[in-house]
């Protein structure tokens, strides 16, 4: 049963609070929902003949005839009630040929389009609906903040809802059931596979459930009820290769096991202690608990420098925030990329403004936002942030 109404869906980005790199070696990592979100508007098509995807962030707008797509359906449809199986190399080759992309496609636009087509054909199956979808994101791409997962989660949720595979909650901003969220997550993971090949599953899990997740040795477990924390998120805009940084840590570990193992164990202990503090502070963190979180951030940033994933751009950032009494660490792969700065609830706005000004002067991008954000959500049009409404109206 296809749903004949406009839907608005959003999913959060993600940051690693603690445990990056150590997680590759079996230690605990804590990933949290980032309240910079990807928003999707789905409208039933004006006629039954076409499906349109519009991605204004990357300047892409494509329309296909459903009659052309119908020919691909037999190669894609598996029951969304069961665990999704794909995407197979053959299916991806079909899609690349259909969309006119070369087989070596790796650019953001092509991968986003392929993920959409894969999810549309697989979830909607025999009765392909005529749809217009616009996806607009507050998240920068390629910054390690889970932008592709937020995209895959939003599309999976919207397609599952419009094709009647999951419910549409009567009240907007009400969450889906655990079983429905599990289904959304399993389809979003397939979208992530189209984009990344072999993703860990952490980013789409954060996009689906939000809050905080504990990740260790491939096991992903939501942490029940965590407080939302205000942060300053900074993108140094320094590009880095995750693969090279991960390989560098591995080399050090092989060369100096007696030095590196204790550092990774210490990072593991930081993740454990942070989880304990967050779970103890559900009703609101005390000043003492904030102090502990700040100390953990400082210790972990030093550890990350020790294991070789720091960068002068991150050192400058930490010096700038420290001079204002704030505490920062890199998040993600390091070597540039992004960092988070914890903001206590009683911080003066003038302090945050001064820090942002200083970091902007280095050419960095800053957002005041929060972590521990809710996962994938359905919205009414009146509840959307202004920047989102503006972007949808322009699209």
TrEMBL record:
It is an enzyme of class 2 (transferase). GO terms for cellular component: cytosol. Residues 125-207 form the GHMP kinase N-terminal domain. It comes from the Eukaryota. It is found in: Cytoplasm. The keyword Chaperone does not apply. It catalyses: (R)-mevalonate + ATP = (R)-5-phosphomevalonate + ADP + H(+). The keyword Cell membrane does not apply. InterPro entries: GHMP_kinase_C_dom (IPR013750), GHMP_kinase_C_sf (IPR036554), GHMP_kinase_N_dom (IPR006204), GHMP_knse_ATP-bd_CS (IPR006203), Mev_gal_kin (IPR006205), Ribosomal_Su5_D2-typ_SF (IPR020568), Ribsml_uS5_D2-typ_fold_subgr (IPR014721). Its EC number is 2.7.1.36. PROSITE patterns: GHMP_KINASES_ATP. Pathway: Isoprenoid biosynthesis; isopentenyl diphosphate biosynthesis via mevalonate pathway; isopentenyl diphosphate from (R)-mevalonate: step 1/3. GO terms for biological process: cholesterol biosynthetic process; isopentenyl diphosphate biosynthetic process, mevalonate pathway. Catalyzes the phosphorylation of mevalonate to mevalonate 5-phosphate, a key step in isoprenoid and cholesterol biosynthesis. Belongs to the GHMP kinase family. Mevalonate kinase subfamily. This is Mevalonate kinase.
């Amino acid at each position: 049963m296809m749903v004949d109404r406009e839907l608005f869906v959003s999913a959060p980005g993600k940051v690693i609070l603690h445990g990056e790199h150590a997680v590759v070696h079996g230690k605990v990592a804590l990933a949290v929902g980032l309240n910079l979100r990807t928003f999707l508007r789905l409208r039933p098509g004006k006629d039954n003949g076409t499906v349109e995807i519009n991605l204004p962030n990357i300047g892409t707008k494509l329309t296909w005839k459903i009659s052309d797509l119908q020919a691909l359906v037999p190669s894609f449809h598996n029951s969304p009630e069961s665990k999704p199986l794909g995407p197979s190399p053959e299916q991806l080759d079909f899609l690349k040929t259909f969309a006119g992309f070369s087989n070596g496609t790796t650019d953001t636009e092509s991968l986003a389009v392929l993920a959409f087509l894969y999810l549309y054909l697989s979830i909607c199956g025999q009765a392909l609906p005529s749809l217009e979808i616009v996806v607009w994101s507050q998240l920068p791409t390629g910054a390690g903040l889970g932008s592709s997962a937020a995209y895959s989660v939003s599309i999976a949720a919207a397609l599952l809802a419009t094709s009647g595979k999951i419910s549409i909650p009567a009240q907007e901003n009400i969450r889906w059931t655990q079983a429905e969220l599990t289904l959304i997550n399993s389809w979003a993971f397939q979208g992530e596979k189209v984009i990344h090949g072999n993703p860990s599953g952490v980013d789409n899990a954060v996009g689906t459930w939000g809050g905080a997740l504990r990740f260790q040795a491939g096991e992903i477990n939501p942490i029940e009820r965590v407080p939302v924390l205000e942060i300053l998120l900074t993108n140094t805009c320094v590009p880095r290769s995750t693969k090279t940084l991960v390989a560098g840590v591995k080399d050090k570990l092989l060369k100096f096991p007696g030095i590196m193992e204790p550092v990774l164990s210490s990072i593991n202990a930081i993740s454990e202690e942070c989880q304990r503090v967050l779970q103890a502070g559900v009703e609101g963190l005390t000043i003492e608990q904030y102090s502990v979180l700040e100390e953990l951030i400082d210790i972990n940033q030093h550890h990350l420098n020790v294991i070789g994933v720091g960068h002068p751009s991150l050192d400058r950032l930490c010096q700038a925030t420290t001079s204002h009494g704030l505490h920062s660490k890199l998040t993600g792969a390091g070597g540039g990329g992004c960092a988070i700065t914890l903001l206590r609830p009683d911080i003066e706005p003038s302090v945050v403004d001064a820090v942002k000004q200083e970091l902007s002067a280095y050419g960095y991008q800053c957002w005041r936002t929060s972590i521990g954000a809710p996962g994938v959500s359905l919205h009414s049009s009146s509840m959307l942030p202004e920047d989102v409404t503006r972007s949808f109206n322009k699209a």
